[in-house]
Amino acid sequence: MSPVSAVKDGFVKAFTFAGRSRRPEYWWFFGFVFVGAAVIGAVEAAALGAPGRVVRFFQILVFIPFLAVGWRRLQDTGRPGWYLLIPVAVVVASWFLVGSAPGQVLPEGTIIAPAPGQGLGAGLSPAVLTGATVAQVLAGVVIVWWMTLPSQRGANDYGPEPRVR
Q1: Exposure string over 116-145, b if 16+ CB within 10 A, otherwise e
Q2: Backbone angles phi, psi at 127, to 5 degrees
Q3: pLDDT digits (tens, 9 = 90+) for 78-121
Q4: Distance between CA 19 and CA 67 in Å, rounded?
């Protein structure tokens, strides 16, 4: 699969979470998202002094297609696509554990952020904080490792093999 066809398929199948995606489709789309955000951010930073709205718009634009291609990639390895959400759950749990979650937004739009040392995680031992960090890193590493595995041969619970060997 060429890079252009992988990116095109990523957008064409943006809302398709059923089926399977091979490694080239996922990694070429990943590369497009990574390089695209870096280039847009650099150009925006050079032009405006800091990356901001344009790079965020790009990230929002590619979020669902990237999630879908990753979901299908996990299914190609025989794992449920929702496993892709495990690192997100670990990060959210860590936010609440260590108190670095975004501040509370009041109805009138005022943001209340805890004072330094007063967050939910204030007083937690360094071991707990280190454990939360290690859990985040491990969850990400496991997902990346799964994304590098070869396709499960033959049909699986998520459909036929995308490419017959």
Answers
A1: eeebebeeeeeeebeebeebeeebeeebee
A2: -65, -40
A3: 999 999 998 888 888 877 776 654 555 455 655 555 555 555 45
A4: 13
Tokens describing residue 111: 């943001």
The DSSP letter of residue 114 is: P
Tokens for 60, please give them: 């929002």
pLDDT tens digit sequence for 111-147: 555 555 555 455 566 777 788 788 888 998 999 999 9
Q: Whole-angstrom distance between the N-terminal and C-terminal Cα of the chain?
A: 14
Contact criterion met (CB below 8 Å) for 74 and 81: yes
Contacts of 126 (CB under 8 A, 6+ apart): none
Do 154 and 162 form a contact (C-beta atoms < 8 A)? no
- Model pTM score: 0.77
CB 29 within 8 A of CB 6: yes
Strand partners, 127: none
